[in-house]
Amino acid sequence: MSDPARGSTSDQDLQTVLDRMADGFFALDSGWTVTYANEEGRRILRAAMSDDAVGPTGSVEGCHLWDSIPGSADTEFHDEYHRAMTTQEPVSFDSYYEPLDTWFEARVFPSDSGLSVYLRDVTDRRELEQRQEESLRAIQRLYAVSSDHDRTFEQKVEAILALGCEYLDVPNGFLTRIEDATQHVEVSHAEHPLLQPGETCPLDEAYCKRTIERDTLLTVVNATEEGWAGDPAHENFGLETYIGGKVEDDGDRYGTLCFAATTPRGEPFTDTQRTFVELLTRWVSYELERQRAAERLERERDRLDEFVSVVSHDLRNPITAARGRVDLLAEESDSEHVEPIRRSLSRMETLIEDLLALAREGNAVDDPEPVDLVALATAAWETTDKRGGTLGATVEELEVLADEARLRQLLENLFRNAVEHGGDDVTVTVGPLADGDGFYVSDDGPGIPEDDRERVFETGFTTATDGTGFGLNIVAEIAEAHGWDVRAVESEEGGARFEITGVESA
Predict the structure, then answer these.
(1) β-bridge mates for residue 490, sequence order
(2) Rg (alpha carbons) of the chain, rounded to whole number
(3) How far apart are CA 364 and CA 385, in angstroms?
């Protein structure tokens, strides 16, 4: 290329254009001497060159590039410029130049006479990319912590506080609980002696007093310059940098989640950093609500266990005693009242069994095993009060993945339902669905009215005079525990047909 520092009018025009460019530009001859640089190019080269290499006028033209810049032979710029000169092929690359603390995007164009070099400062872009990468890593680590079921709530909070301190580059992160106008530090990852777990202070002497009054985060990057001098919180803790948000528990105020340092930050928190802290406060709020819900569920389970104990012991014992008395009464008398009493006692036992089954069927099936549905149905039919009914199957074998004991209970309840509604001579059939997605149990009884087909699975719903109203509800509970669906339709014979779908074949 021609030297734009001297020559024709067109060269002068080119020089004018280059001088007005925001990017740095300079030209090198084949001996690595700078022949021309625009204003930004001169600024970059002067900053990189040693003082004795640059002339008294600040001119860089005539300077040998590598001799004038200390340590330049060990840089990517040296390698790439030489590659362009040797191959006579343009090169483009991004590289960090440590002496100038700057990222440059370099584009190098070779010619027979040397190189033309364009340098663009892309430090802001690279820093933005770096912050985005850091934010992504922080979010990924937050997800890993929050989804770790082996950690307690306190362990999770301590981990996210450590994560937040690293991400925000501050030494103190803490979760507070505010009660009776007092700030309690519940969990912390902090160096500050007053921000350790168990530390308390009056709310009026804490930064959190202002935090809980806001709907958005409270941020401070230089407390002294922002008017905190003389504030009891500043005098007590001496925090110069602070970012915090309020934490709620089921809509009620709980406390705050905060990050802080005793030194000024020097620059505002970015939108991404603020969003990250907002995310942490919401996660802690959610975890508190989930923890309270788990505690309530645990209390309900304890009450349920107590109920099961009462039902299985305190009710069964009197029924057993009553049965014994009825048997003695039957030996002494041929009263017409004996059989109705026996039927009532039998119905009470069935009701107790159904209630106990409902109490036990809440847990999901986590480890299903291969089960032969046809063989299990045959065994379940034998223990069902089938009266004069018959059981048939459309296939000899049908293996499914299930909890065998609970699947048997599902079948027993469907069989009992068929006998209760279909009568002593009911025929029950078990078989696979045509699309292979599950199985069915059908009968040739009177069937279920269309308006009742969704209601039959509700607790207590029954159309039988001696039904408990729990049998089909138990069927639905067991199906749900397996991740299956169940629905009632009309069978080919006009009776009831129950289709269980979503069943995985073994």
Answers:
(1) 496
(2) 40
(3) 28
